[in-house]
Design brief:
Layout lengths: L8 E7 L11 H4 L4 H15 L1 E7 L3 H10 L6 E5 L8 H8 L5 E5 L21 E4 L4 H16 L1
Bound molecules: 1,3,4-trihydroxy-5-OXO-cyclohexanecarboxylic acid.
């Protein structure tokens, strides 16, 4: 049977500020893998799960809001590591609240073991689930969770 591409659900994976420096920035906290390494790992997993992924990073809060708004159409699920905007951005939260799809919030580090300002997450108020502290595995688990959540809906 031919592979029907239009049937493949798309998962949007958004990364916020400073995540472009992954592998170079505070490796003792964030690990030595780069964002490209994570993208490659997720592309492999997406193929196995028969999902398509759109993986992006921005340092700009406005661009992040635009991309979240864009997920209102043609996207089955969202994985979001909003970086520091997690703890500050009501604009990101409002954009997330306008979505009607499962949202998994991911953090490489365990934000609850770190400074108290990282214990507050605006993103969590709109997230279906939260994964923190498992490094790049968190993204993998989020993709697997979304595959199951989408299957049920
Ligand atoms: C982070 C945690 C945030 O507090 C921080 O600002 C980041 C990365 C993480 O993945 O652990 O930039 O989201």
């Amino acid at each position: 049977m031919p592979y029907v591409d239009q049937m493949v659900a798309k998962i949007l994976i958004l990364n916020g500020p400073n995540l472009n420096l992954l592998g170079l920035r505070e490796p003792e906290i964030y690990g030595r893998e780069t964002l490209d390494d994570i993208r490659a790992m997720l592309e492999g997993e997406a193929r196995a799960l028969k999902l398509a992924i759109d993986f992006r990073q921005t340092n700009s809060e406005g661009e992040l809001v635009d991309w979240i708004q864009g997920a209102r159409q043609g996207v089955a699920g969202l994985i979001l590591n909003a970086g520091a905007y997690t703890h500050t951005s009501i604009a990101v939260l409002d954009a997330l609240k306008a979505l009607k799809l499962p949202i998994i919030e991911v953090h490489l580090s365990n934000v609850y073991r770190r400074e108290s300002f990282r214990h507050v997450s605006y993103v969590s108020q709109a997230a279906t689930g939260v994964i923190a502290g498992l490094g790049s595995n968190g993204y993998l688990l989020a993709l697997q969770a979304l595959a199951r959540l989408i299957d049920r809906t």
